[in-house]
Amino acid sequence: MRTAKRMGVRTVAVYSEADRAALHATLADAAVAIGPAPVKDSYLNIDAIIAAARTAGAEAIHPGYGFLSENAAFAQACANAGLIFIGPAAATIRLMGSKSQAKALMRSSGVPIVPGYHEADQTIAALAQAAARIGYPVLLKASAGGGGRGMRLVTAPGELAEALASAKREAQAAFGDDQMLIEKYIARPRHIEVQVFGDSHGNIVSLYERECTLQRRHQKVVEEAPSIAVTPKRRAEMSAAARAAAQAVGYLGAGTVEFIADASRYYFIEMNTRLQVEHPVTEMILGIDLVEWQLRIACGEKLPLKQDEIRANGHAIEARIYAEDAEKGFLPSTGVIRGWREPAGEGVRVDTGFRAGDAVTPYYDALLAKVIVWADDRPRALARMQQALGEFEIVGITSNLAFLRVLIRHPQVENGDIDTGLIERELSALTAAAPMGALAMAAACAAILWREEEERIAAKDDL
Q1: CATH code assigned at 170
Q2: Which of 238, 221, 347, 331 is nearest to 277 (CA)?
Q3: Are 44 and 68 in contact (CB under 8 A)?
Q4: Cα-based distances in Å from 57 to 12, 82, 130, 461
Q5: Contacts 24+ apart (CB under 8 A), 435-438
Q6: Same domain, 124 and 197
Q7: Would you say residue 458 lies in a domain?
Q8: SS3 (DSSP) at 83
């Protein structure tokens, strides 16, 4: 919304009943209610969103990076209603949303893929035969899925049937499709993704890579750009492969091509047909606004930069702040935010939709904010992130700030010696309770007292 306002574009927010007073609804030039709190009745209600756009006289819809952002039916509904969907065509979303079809296309386009099984025959006999051919350990994955849902690690033949039944149930519940694929399990890989952009004039560029290796249960926690593990030679190869992937589908708008990699190889995982949560680290090292690029491309403009004009500078890191209790198995935390103090200063950015007084409800994703820092190099960026996390104070609900403060100081994180399993292996050390420092305790008490005083004054004014 801030980008749109800077460009002189009026914005209309949609909100559920639970989000009536949410920050995004107040920042927009206009806001339209679309239904009750449950997502199926509001943020996943395509008809309600299209109706809201028509009522407001909107010309385009930006789907964000959640809910319907990768929903082909929504993109098609926008087109049918004469609205510009700020993203790729429905056919592209549908194609890349099927891991099996996407990997077949990547294979034919010369993009390296993990050895695996992507066929239609889903009988246990066929899947068992494929797993034996690929060689254990293998990963079961939901063909239509993402975010770790419908995914199981199988280390031996005797585990396959139970893991398959469990993964299929989860995939059916999450995506309405229980088709599975099998991939060779790559031990201790890194997760590297490449940002790509395409315009309606046939131009495709790549915008460096992001290191997304620090994950918990296949969900990204901390991201960086660029990756210190990617050499100039591999960067050129992976970027070329990402552009080839985008070119193969005639890509339009912002997309991300994801790879897993070890010291000697890299493989295509999937393509996300939307702007990623972690896109700010790319913006920070390139000095560009990716949302502005999205809006310009949606208007039919050419890409603002050519490939040889894109240069990275410095190092950026993002940490995701969630309303969850790391000491209790990362259980979601709900309630009213009584105090909120963000870090600030040179090279520090906070993206959030919350503030003091807002309610954190159980209806939606637990992401509260993203802290993004930039510095000349990675050690300085890490130091800046450590300081920023130390300055961030949230009172009234439990967050993962303490967990992140420990994680960002972990020796392997500081050294860059990481893989996707690091957090799970080190979980007990990362979630050990740490005493609250004097400054943090004072800030928390001040925030509570300040909020209570505001509520007392407000109550007095209402009399």
Answers
A1: 3.30.1490.20
A2: 221
A3: yes
A4: 9, 11, 53, 38
A5: none
A6: no
A7: no
A8: coil
Relative to beta strand 324-325, strand 331-332 is: antiparallel
Is-contact 316 284, C-beta < 8 A?
yes
* C-beta of residue 83 within 8 angstroms of C-beta of residue 59: yes
CA geometry: angle at 272 spanning 219 and 43, to 5°? 80
pLDDT at 100: 81
Q: Does residue 195 belong to any structural domain of this protein? A: yes
Dihedrals phi, psi of 251, to nearest 5 degrees: -65, 140
Please give the pLDDT value at position 449. 55
Q: How many domains does the chain have?
A: 3
State which residues form the domain around 62: 2-93
Whether residue 243 lies in the annotated active site: no
The full length of the chain comes to: 463
Tokens 């989860």 correspond to what residue? Answer: 170
Tokens of 174: 């999450």
Verify that 195 and 287 share a domain, yes or no. yes
Among residues 345, 354, 447, the alpha carbon closest in space to that of 389 is found at 345
Q: Which of 94, 243, 274, 349 is catalytic?
A: 274
User: Is residue 370 situated within a structural domain?
Assistant: yes
386, 287: one domain: yes
**Percentage above 90 pLDDT, the chain:** 86
- As beta bridge partners, residue 369 has 321, 352
Sequence-ordered list of residues with C-beta below 8 angstroms from that of 328, at least 6 positions apart, any chain: none
pLDDT at 460: 46
CA 274/CA 68 separation, integer angstroms: 10
Question: Could you tell me which of 346, 342, 289, 286 has the C-alpha nearest to residue 319?
Answer: 342
Please report whether residue 105 resides in a domain: no
CATH number of 208's domain: 3.30.470.20
**445 Cβ contact list (under 8 Å, min separation 6):** none
Q: Give the whole-angstrom CA distance, residue 59 versus residue 295.
A: 12
The secondary structure of 403-429, three-state, reads HHHHHCCCHHHHHCCCCCCHHHHCHHH
DSSP-assigned states of every residue in 283-351 = HHHHT--HHHHHHHHHTTPPPSS-GGG----SEEEEEEEESEEGGGTTEE--EE--EEE---STTEEEE
- pLDDT less than 50: residues of the chain: 434-440, 443-444, 447-448, 450-451, 454-455, 457-463
The 3-state secondary structure of 265-289 reads CEEEEEEECCCCCCHHHHHHHHCCC
Same domain flag for 163 and 258: no
